């Protein structure tokens, strides 16, 4: 075997092979690369959105709302929450699961905010107290004294308050 001929070829291939860097956009469908780039996302984020079933046009409002985590956007989307609402829920520290529970019961971020600010952030508790006619401030006072909604209703019917 002629090693004088093979050695330079192997050396050349090693240098050329090491000098090339893979295209970070290679895993993203080529017809969408320019669209993803125009949204200012990284190849990883673009691929994440693609994997979660989003086209660039579908992902744009989520990205504009500040939600650049494709998995989180997918959770919100599947729950029927818009990007604008999701952004508001996130600003209050509410998870997609909790927000969807609120939304399912007819609460939007503005409705839930006073309850959350009162320290009552469990959607089930909020619905229970709200359905019985208590506002966040009243519910907070009854809860602070250790009363359930049923007990509070009983006292309220008797004309008593938590004060």
UniProtKB/TrEMBL annotation:
UniProt-listed PROSITE patterns: PROKAR_LIPOPROTEIN
Superkingdom assignment: Bacteria
The protein, known as: Lipoprotein
Taxonomic lineage: Bacteria, Pseudomonadati, Pseudomonadota, Gammaproteobacteria, Methylococcales
């Amino acid at each position: 075997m002629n090693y004088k001929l093979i050695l330079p070829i192997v050396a050349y291939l090693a240098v050329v092979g090491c000098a090339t860097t893979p295209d970070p956009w290679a895993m993203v469908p080529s017809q969408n690369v320019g669209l993803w780039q125009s949204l200012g996302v990284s190849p990883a984020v673009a691929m994440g959105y693609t994997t979660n079933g989003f086209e660039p046009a579908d992902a744009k409002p989520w990205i504009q709302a500040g939600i650049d985590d494709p998995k989180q956007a997918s959770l919100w989307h599947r729950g029927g929450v818009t990007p604008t609402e999701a952004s508001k829920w996130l600003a209050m520290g509410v998870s997609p699961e909790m927000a969807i529970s609120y939304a399912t019961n007819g609460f939007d971020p503005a409705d839930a905010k006073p309850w959350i600010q009162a320290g009552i952030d469990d959607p089930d508790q909020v619905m229970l107290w709200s359905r019985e006619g208590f506002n966040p401030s009243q519910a907070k006072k009854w809860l602070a004294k250790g009363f359930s909604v049923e007990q509070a209703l009983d006292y309220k019917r008797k004309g008593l308050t938590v004060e």
